[in-house]
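User: Here's a chain of 317 residues. Predict its fold as tokens.
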Amino acid sequence: MGEAAPAEVDLVREAQSGDVASLGLLLARHRSDMRAVALGILGYCPEVDDVVQEAALIALRRIGDVRDPHAVAPWLRTVVRNACRMHLRTRKAVPVADLEPLVPPRGEPDPGEILDRHATRDWVWRAMEELSPNLRLVTMLRYFTEVTAYEHIAELCGVPVGTVRSRLSQARAKLSEALLATANLAHDDVAVLTEARRREAEETLRAARQGSFAEALAAHWSPEVEVTWSRGKRTKGFDYLVRAMERDLDDGVRQSLTNVVAGREVVIWETDLKNPPEDPFHCPPAAAWVQFLEAGRVRRFRLFHLPRDTGVPGASH
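Assistant: Prediction complete.
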């Protein structure tokens, strides 16, 4: 006689404690019910599976919000209904951070903190590594950085907006499959990797302020690095990047690190740019440093400046 299936309440409790196999099994059990809810709201349309996959990713990140383990089924249906409403409202996918709260605020940590606290983050990143480089990049940008608008992702990646939509749709489908396939595998400690990359970023930016930016880049970047700038300009090597940084520093611009997203092959730094009072529009307000690694060194690099809300263009470098 086969082993009895684990009780749902036990699965929820184990999932909330960080057991990724339990969370994977829980989502698999409810997938057909979640799809039925989406079909009831959206009808038979190509977007149904996208919305269900989006809801599964949201549920994965917010499993800690479930107060009553006996009520996980209605909670998951609420997640799906919320995702459907947002889809109908915007007709485009919405980042996790933009979704309406599913429960009243309780001072709980945000989804990113939940992922940091549990092994779930390592599971997600193990599954992310199963995606192709193109799918992985748009997913990292959309869900883990401030570069969430389709047009900004398209500009950064150098592809049409329609391609971004298509890649995100493919990524959600493949990520759902990869999450279930990798639930019982060993996962790298992403927190350790991210912390190492954060230290590297902070040391590099500090070196720039101290006049040793070139030396800091040489420690981790290929001397033949291919650089793509915000407006499509391309250079080779990091000499031009060093000169641009020196010019900004001489003009009184300062960068502060706000976020680091680290995979094995792609690392993204996000920075805020503070302009001098006498030249408030010298640079755009924020930047994303997208680094593509080969053999542990940065081989390709794209710098993207987030535009101002006011529409005033920043200076190009």
